Please model this.
Amino acid sequence: MKARKNMKKGNVQNREHFLSRFADRVQEGVPAKRENKVKPISSIYNLLEKESIEDVFIGNARTIHAETIRTNTENLTEVLESICENVAKDQILSSIQTDNEKLENWTSKRTVQWTPQDGNQNVITAAQSRIGITYCDIALAESGTVVLMNEQNKGRSVSLLPEVHVVIIPKSRIVPRLKEAMEIINGRVNRADSFPTCVNFITGPSNSADIEFVLVVGVHGPLETIYVLVEDE
Amino acid sequence: MSIKIKEGKFKDRVTDEMKNDFMRKAVSGAQDSLGNRRLTSTDKLGDWESWRTAGSEIRKHTIDNLVHYLSMLSEQISAKGGHVYFAETDEDARNYIKEVVRNKNATKVVKSKSMVTEEIGLNTALEEIGCEVVETDLGEYILQVDDHDPPSHIVAPALHKKKEQIRDLFVEKLGYDKTEDPGELAKHARKMLREKFLGAEIGITGCNFAVAETGTICIVTNEGNARMVTTIPKTQITVMGMERLVPSLEDLDIMVSLLTRAAVGQPISSYVTLLNGPKAEEEVDGPEDLHVVIVDNGRSKILGTEFQDILNCIRCGACLNVCPVYRHIGGHSYGSIYQGPVGAVLTPLLDGYDDHKDLPYASTLCGACTDVCPVKIPLHDLLLKHRQEIVEQGGRAPISEKLLMKAFGFGASSGGLYESGTKIASVSLKMLLRNKETISNGPGMMKEWTNSKEFPTLKTSRFRDWMSKHESEKKHEER
Model:
């Protein structure tokens, strides 16, 4: 990722007066480094001693209405092709950064690729696409979640506007839970050039239970989510 | 809308709401289903108590060091190119946001769910300057289309509405021509709102947690509407209560793990979005401009008082989902945008006792709310403290309680009166029995009880008499 260009500091208004009104009712100065007295531990780690991390991931993904297709690097494009069967090229938008040449060839031939130079046209394309294909940065076994760190070549709209969201998940990127993902993101904090402006934790298709508590799958985001889990080790 | 959503007396609202059979069924159904889901998800996580303890420590530490963390947060947001405005009052917040909107010459606003924007009456303020403001959370959207019907649950705002009512509403207002099936209704809302998202100039969001160390805004949703609001419009305004932050991303893991389980029994919601400043220049989507408005509006008055723990609240709604009083009277009875036990504690603190002095009495003090709270706020203790406060301030306790206490004080202070009063009690109750074991239609103050349940009759012998008889029998045996 490149450094953010021409970054200008934002304004902060009315802070000093705001804080001075109650400064005498809270602690003064910088708090000592705090450690939680109790360190809560998820039972996912016990489970992972018995089951493989990908099986746990797939099982949890199923409960949130995300179907997982397992494949390997070699057959990945065939799997994607079968998902996209009968869908025209301009109906498929992808934002994938990969050094997998076969995948690169397939996406350039078969999909419209997210192209920062084209500006807002990308968003218009996303809104008209049936399928959006992304490549996840991290996946969480505990909740069947994929994590997308958005940047110029990986637009936010790809995982949001199309009706179907297809996520490619390299097996090596699955971690036990949120904790590990936060550690990875935190590891980038001090590198201004690589701290993403937007990180999305996505767990299946959008849903709502706002009407009579009946679960409706597919509200504002995708109506359907397909995970493609790739053996990469 | 502001904090207060209904005029009139608490008792009248309760009487009205209790007649709404659908609402009562919907609320009890939601409580049962959310309760089961919460338990399943917390069991699966394991060791829920230590998660609660950690969550409670994080929140307490943050609030205790609020000046430090708010300074840090605003520095970090600003370093990433976002603007921060500290709003002391609701009016300050409205004025700042109106100014941002005016400077953009914008009129099309989309909003994701935010309680604090309800609290400060933001929608009306923006409508007054010519904006179209569209709520995009499905529940909030339904309420907005229904001429701003107030929310009845902090997480599921349209819980009180029947699907048939929503269908009729959509037919009347949105050109809908299908059935009352929730899936079809949601699909129609999706279509209507998709257009609004794509044309919006300003996106307004709430904030579940802001992370001080990184300047991150974390938004938790299931529908994906907050993602729309933070992806399409060129300007994003995030409004947050001044207490809604955590120190670090490590802490955020614990808070999100607690929130989604306590609120809806999910290990995580469909979308957890972390926003670090506006989009980078070379990025295509996301806001070019980000404004974060940090709102006090009465919160700082709570700091350093015995009510401070309420600032630890993460708005999960778990206390509503276990409260026996909420179960029967529903959300609208509270007359506040914040309902249930948390609403009964928070509303009088933010908006004063004058309009909300009855709320601390809308509790059986059973403590279920305290037991379920993911950050261990002693809610029922705080309700009790409110009652003490109300009595100490004088003249504010409900009339029935005052009369009762006065009568008891008068009766109990004189031996003779107490003696004869307690003797008469069982005789006078007998007159109300009408050949039954229990009383179903009591007079005066007793009506409050007998309206909803039977009143048991008193034994003809008094405890005091039984005790002295028992004592003398015991002495007799010992001899």
